[in-house]
Amino acid sequence: MSTLSTTEGRAASSRSWPVLLVVVCAQMLIWLDTSILNVAVTTLASPAEGLGATPAELEWVASAYTLVFAGTLFAGGALADRFGPRTTLLAGLALFGAASAAGAFAPNAGWLIMARAFMGAGSALLMPATLSVIVQSTPEEKRTRAIAIWSSSSGLGVAVGPVVGGALLSHFWWGSVFLANVPIVALCLAGVVAVVPGLKGSGRRMLDLPGLALSVLGLGGVVYGIIELGNGQTWYGAHVLLPFVVGGALLGAFVAGQRRSPTPSLDLRLFSRPGFTAGSVVLLIAFMALAGHLFYAAFYLQGPRGLSPAEAGTVMLAAAVGIVLGSQASPALSRLVSPRWTIAAGVLATAATYAGYLWFDGGTPITVVAALLWVQGFGMGLVGTPVTAVMMRGIPPQLTGAGSAVNSVTRQVGGVLGVAMAGSILSAVYRDRMADAALPTGPRGLSGDTAEQARTSAEAARSLAASLRLPELAALADRAFLDAMYAATFWTAVLAFVGFVVTVVGLRARDSDSERSKDSRTEGN
Question: DSSP secondary-structure letter at 207?
């Protein structure tokens, strides 16, 4: 079965690039919003300039988006298959834009948390629909290049976000970082209406509402547990174990139900394809390592290196350039040496850059940092495009939304896991080093309460050092943070190397005739 008929193929060929431009614009919104918040948290915490948000409220401002996003992505994929990706794309844009406007004028942190949750739901509708539009509307000969551009937009959005956020906060109030989404949403809505074809979903397919509910609640429980684990709390506390147990049980019930459902939200036939399963694992590991690395890299640049959020974001543009170039180079490299070895080279390159942080200190030249970020971005660009192409190859049109959702969920869950891992290691090692350090005491030193505050985080210690004029305390905090970063980056590099092994072993070259035969059987089901 061909994805496009002959007539549809000619129409798609003439309109594929305008469609791709609109879809990439919508995709960038998701990643731009994911990263732009990082530069606004300090302002949001200020009673004078922001909302006076507490640390716990700030945690939820960031987490509510990811939690709802990851928890509802399967629902977004199912809705794209049911009603068509164009319809789902329009609905997601409208919801995202309305929630952004509500968040920009939030009177308190609770309101902003709720707005961020709705923004996550809008993103969950957007992401599967964007990839589904590309797969269904782009001719076969242009599809790999289109997926490369789609994949590179995520890296560009992540890297540009802090720069845009820093520029907005330099001239406007805190709500501008959310209000800036609204004109972009309006532009995307107009573009979807004008150029995106009215692709049809499997209109006769009934929604699996119980399955959707189980996937949302199950993923939500697991992600909530991961977020709590990343707060540096004990892993055996009820606040961590209970969400994991409940979420895991619900996901188990979800999988069991999908096997019996005539209209599943997640068609498990997708995982009968070795390329789809192995690609999902590689993607999970790659994004887990990347998110963990970016987490401590941001603290490194703005902590021991003393850069402002905007300056740190500018340095990290090197990673964006690398991702874009790597994504564009990956199709040609895949044809030259095979997708398997292109992905393997990319994962190994990122592992090497993560290991490079073991030699960083407070005086490492910024040019060296930027160079490693560029190599890291180029490596991720080599990974994202061919992995996505391998996963989506041969999936019939009625399952592209579900396949896109798995691809997107894997990225998001990998990101949350990576931040949780890096955050837990950073927190534990930092507290251990500061507990052993001889903190300054006396008239200009620390009392018992302030000493405990200094041991909470390097940022708290630096703030105390500035207010009490204790430069030696700031130096102790920077040393403890660097030790914590070395521990985090070691395990991040190990994780990335595991991804290399999975790529080499799990994405072995397979007989093309056998694969095509399997694709035909799946399409016929």
Answer: P
